[in-house]
Design brief:
Elements: H1 2-16, H2 23-28, H3 33-44, E1 54-62, E2 67-74, E3 81-88, H4 99-110, E4 113-118, E5 121-126, E6 129-134, E7 139-142, E8 147-155
Antiparallel strand pairs: 1-2, 1-8, 2-3, 3-4, 4-5, 5-6, 6-7, 7-8
Helix pairs in contact: 1-3
Amino acid sequence: MRQRLVALVHLIAVLYRFPAGQVFNRLLSGPRMNRLLAFVLLLLFSSSGFCMEYTRGFALQTVDGEHVGFVLAAPSFKAESGDCVFTLLPIGSELVHSPLGVAIANRKVAGEHHWNRKGDRIVVSFKGNVVLEFSGKAEILDGSGKVLGRVVPIPENTE
């Protein structure tokens, strides 16, 4: 249990860009408490183990590293292709209207998307049209190639 908690604290520190020592202080106070606490409880009390294998999804962040949402894949991004869904969960309400926030909201409303691995890139399409790309440099690109943000791998729960 202690190892899970330590790994979780470090994950939250990466996602929210503040020192790991401040994680507990932020969990216990401030406007972000409910979102962070729900995230912590979900990961902490999941039925399977918690390890640092990055395959099932990505946290989506702005170019400045502000958390905006998630993309989750089935099967994992280790495969050659599959389907994915997007979730908008910004750290601040102003990020809903950011270019990445709008892109994630549009993808969420559209529903399930298809993805293909092309070398070190992951190309996300909807009804045959490329809508997003995750580059080998961990960048999020829109359909025209404009950089919207970056991806941060999230751990896969395995036993």
